[in-house]
Amino acid sequence: MKYGIGVRYSEQGIRLLKVSFDDAGLKITGAGTGENPDQLATLFTSDDLTPDNTSIAISLGPGDFLSSYMLREDDMSGNDMEKHLKWQIEHKILSASEDYRLDYFITDLIGCVFAGRNDLIDKKKSIIHDIAQAGTPIVTDVESVALYNGNEGSGEIGPETVMLTSLEAEGISSLVLHEGSLVALETFTTDDDPQLRALPRLDRDALAGIDNTAVEKMIGHITDSMGRLSSYGDFKEKPALKKIVLSGAGAYIGNGTLAEMVTEKTDIPTMISNPLKPLLTELPEDHADLSEYSAAFTTCFGLALRALED
């Protein structure tokens, strides 16, 4: 049995998801939320977890990293794309480039580069190291990639042109996929709204009290992102979006009607991500209510899947 734990950590709260994998397949076996990692220590240190069969992946969210992407030109090699992407990202970095860790994601259609600050990556790893079992492997992954992996693992991508959007207090991450291939992405921070500080720790009572002003702002962020990403740069076919999939704790503002409001605003069918499907999920009874907020764990699911690979 192998175990992976996906952690979305911020100063205002933490969410995590635990998955297991063996000959019988993949199962989601634990989930939790809290204001700090110590509140979830039992999910890190339960008896079935050992450094030999457990890995942890931590998310870098909006504001934690920079990114650039480009569409592959004819006959452009992967090495050429890396050189162009490195040039692009270094022009976004204001401090010394050695203060950042670069990671590349290159496909037949698109190339992406992500630059995360070394000090922030090391800080997040250190916080989780302090409560995880000694020797447990810990990696970091950007929220954009975790969002893709979480939606793909949930079977929510398909062949049509779809925008995946994670809505969190720290900001918004969006990807556009056409026929399953990534064609555009962006991650950006948003203004600090006191009402949204409840999102990282998934404070259900505070979520229910978020007013229409914050909801309208969130819808504006979604439609603005859709407008920027639906041009696809030099992607000549420019297919129209057929579906929007919302995830993150922000998907539940507006008393559960945000998806309906986005559909009404954009005329594009909008759904809420659902990684905690009953056939896949075996949550402990005291955490079963978290299934009602399944989309809040989509990136955690993607992170946990990444952890299984390491």
- N-to-C SSE series? EEEHEEHEEHEHEEEHHEHEH
Q: Radius of gyration, Cα only, in angstroms?
A: 19 Å
The side-by-side strand order for the widest beta sheet comes to 3-2-1-4-8
Architecture (CATH level 2) name of the largest domain: 2-Layer Sandwich
What's the overall average pLDDT, rounded?
91
| CATH level-four homologous superfamily name of the largest domain | ATPase, nucleotide binding domain
* Rough outline: globular
User: Helix fraction?
Assistant: 25-40%
CATH class of the largest domain: Alpha Beta
Number of helices: 8
Total beta-strand segments: 13
* Major sheet attributes: 5 strands, mixed
- Structural class, from secondary structure content? alpha/beta
How many domains would you count in the coordinates? 2
CATH topology-level name of the largest domain: Nucleotidyltransferase, domain 5
What are the low-pLDDT stretches, counting only 5+ consecutive residues below 50?
none
What fraction strand? Answer: 25-35%
Distance from N terminus to C terminus (CA atoms, Å) equals 14 Å
Please characterize this protein's 3D structure.
It is built from eight helices and 13 strands. It has helices at 41-45, 78-90, 118-129, 143-153, 204-208, 212-229, 258-266, 298-309; strands spanning 2-10, 13-22, 25-34, 54-60, 65-71, 100-106, 110-117, 138-142, 162-168, 171-178, 181-189, 243-247, 270-272. A hairpin with a 2-residue loop joins strand 10 and strand 11 (181-189). Helix 6 packs across helix 7 (258-266). The radius of gyration is 19 Å and the shape is globular. 44% of the residues are buried.
